[in-house]
Amino acid sequence: MPLYILNKDGRPGMTRRQCTGEYKVKPIKKKVRGLLGYPYPARVPKGVFVEQWIGISTDEFHRAKDADVQYMRNVHPLIEMNWSRSDCVDYLSSLGLADTPKSSCLGCPFHGNAQWRHIRDNSPTEWEDVVEFDAAIRKGNARANATGNVLLGEAFLHRSRVPLDQAPIDHVTAAERAALGEEAAAELEQGVVNGCSPWTCRSEVEAVQADFGLTA
Ligand code: SF4
């Protein structure tokens, strides 16, 4: 996953993203091949494929893409039904599910303060987990470190680059608001607008940099 970095010289930065490709796309492709009966490295015959239904709404039309392998075909039912994000919210509300959160990993660095607070205040065990995870990544990726690609600095889950259990998640500070401007400060509070799925990852670097006013 992309992480907020504090370089040794004090400059802020971000690591490269790996989360979706490594932990979602690869396992899904492996599973699909298995279900089709052609585990890697077997060649999947032409015309043999699965259909994947992906919940991208019309507001996110630009995120709807074809699969990059022949044995998977992407279908976007919400777009076919012409449903926007608010149509989905209305539908969920009609079922009593108005509080359905955006899909994302528990420890996603693109949570806003509100999402971090929600975990802290409602799920103590999950909060313990993410705080522990945040501490564990301080020196970067263990596998990368073992192969000599040592992180020159420290990694954090919160964009303040402060350990999560001490990070300023209760409100956007005046200093943050002044540095970021109103729009980015609102996103710091609410998080990246989009949810995350294997096929619509919220960590697309450009989007996130724009969202949070960051430089890589
Ligand atoms: S929610 Fe998406 S961007 Fe965030 S950690 Fe998970 S895969 Fe990565």
Structural notes for this entry:
With 216 residues, the chain is mainly alpha-helical. It has one domain. 39% of the residues lie in helices and 9% in strands. It contains nine helices and five strands; from the N terminus they run ββαββαααααβααα. The strands form two sheets. The chain has a three-stranded antiparallel beta sheet, with no helix packed on it. It has a two-stranded parallel sheet with strand order 3-4. Helix 4 (113-122) crosses helix 5 and helix 7 (174-180) crosses helix 8. It is globular and about 55 Å long. It starts with a strand and ends with a helix. Mean pLDDT is 87; it is low at 205-216. The site of iron/sulfur cluster has 11 residues, from helix 1. Iron/sulfur cluster (SF4) binds at residues 1, 19-20, 104-105, 108, 110, 196, 201-203.
Order of helices and strands: EEHEEHHHHHEHHH
Given helix and strand content, the structural type is mainly alpha
Number of helices: 9
Portion in beta strands: 5-15%
Ranges where pLDDT stays below 50 over 5 or more residues in a row are 205-216
Bound molecules: iron/sulfur cluster
Query: What characteristic shape results from the CA principal axes?
Result: globular
- The quaternary organization reads as single chain
DSSP E strands, number: 5
Major sheet, described briefly? 3 strands, antiparallel
The domain count comes to: 1
InterPro entries: Rossmann-like_a/b/a_fold (IPR014729)
